[in-house]
Amino acid sequence: MSDRLKRILTGISSANTVTVTVLAFVLSVVIGGILMILSDQHLLTEWGYFFQHPTDAVSDSWTKVSDGYVAMFHGAVFDPHAKQAVRPLENTIVDATPLVFAGLAVALPFRAGLFNIGGQSQLIIGAVCATWVGFTFSLPMPLHVLLVIIAGILGGALVGGLTGLLKARFGAHEVISSIMLNNIALGVLAWLIKTKAFHDPHRQDAISKPVKNSALLPAIQGSSPEVNLSTVLAIIAVLVVWWLMTRSTLGFRLRALGSNPDAARTAGISVSRNQVYAMLLAGGLMGLVAVTQISGTLSASHAMTTTLDNGIGFTGITVALLGRGKPVGVALAALLFGALDAGGVAMEASTTPTVPHDVVTVVQAVIVVFVAAPKLVQEIFRLRDVRRDGGGAAPSVAPATAVDSAAEAV
């Protein structure tokens, strides 16, 4: 099972190209438009008498789809009619920030041949540590925020490192151990928020004490309160992971480990030690997601609940795959998903009849399906790899491999 899973994931990463990714997005937009039409009963009625009045169905369908995607754009990027025209872009950044950390937490160990599916447990334990530091101590704001960030990183790294240790020491497959740790962490969270040490005495529901105001991430000056220090941390994380994987000795060892563990071992690289390092770093990145959840703006109460994870750990897997495992690609994929989430809310609120937000979920899923099956996209668009022969250069209709080579270099 382990070798087969790695071959599938490696195939997704290596076979995917920039061209295929863009075409996958185009296909998902088309399918999303079809779903908008199918969700409108009036349009379905018009299509029922298409041969009598074909222009009615085509015109109204185009209006429905175009209005939906325009509303999505206005809700995700720029709304000229809003009081703050760039506020939608800020909403996109807010939604994308935790996905950057989550995507990097999957992409980094994947380069070392490990599949981190334990983001949920790493986030939860990171949140437990960050929340405890946040409501226990009374400190000046800069120091308190710093300690909350460190606590979140250490909590996530603890769980990630445990997964790596089980893999390195006992050969336990990281997917199996991560799934088990996810269940354990959920149980620990459900128990902790009911204990006297964590439960908010002013609330009857299962929720922890809120962190103090001095532990909240400060907003970036000149922006809305929702855009805070976590966005800066996300940019730093992308740069650090890029440098780590392309310029550092540790990054070389991790990449060698992911390419061929036996060859890496023969070259004197400690496989077990570097497996632990990879999962430690991944857990620390998921710990930063916990900080954005608790001390950022994603949790209005700034406290822990049983819905703390909100699926971010698993969404990070799709972001990492869409970003082809590259730090910059992960950041762009996170922005795309953030834009779809923010725009989907606006689309649902602005269209009549309402376009359900579920359309956005389907679009996201379709993107991932096509990215995971690049051969399908190549067949749909008739992309072929025409190789040069001795008689001269044949015109190529294959995906832009030069762009991919440049992306690999970056």
Automatic annotation (TrEMBL):
The UniProt entry lists the main location of this chain as membrane
Q: What membrane topology does the annotation report for this chain?
A: Multi-pass membrane protein
Report which superkingdom the organism of origin falls in: Bacteria
Q: Transmembrane residues, as ranges?
A: 12-38, 96-114, 121-139, 145-166, 175-193, 227-245, 276-296, 302-322, 329-347, 359-377
Does the UniProt entry include the keyword Magnesium?
A: no
Q: Which InterPro entries match?
A: ABC_transp_permease
Q: Where in the cell is it found?
A: Cell membrane
UniProt keywords, alphabetically: Cell membrane, Membrane, Transmembrane, Transmembrane helix
Q: Which CDD domains match?
A: TM_PBP1_transp_TpRbsC_like
Q: Which residues form a coiled coil?
A: none
> What's one Pfam family here?
BPD_transp_2
Recorded GO cellular component terms are: plasma membrane
Q: Does the keyword Transmembrane apply?
A: yes
GO terms of molecular function: transmembrane transporter activity
Q: What is this protein called?
A: Inner-membrane translocator
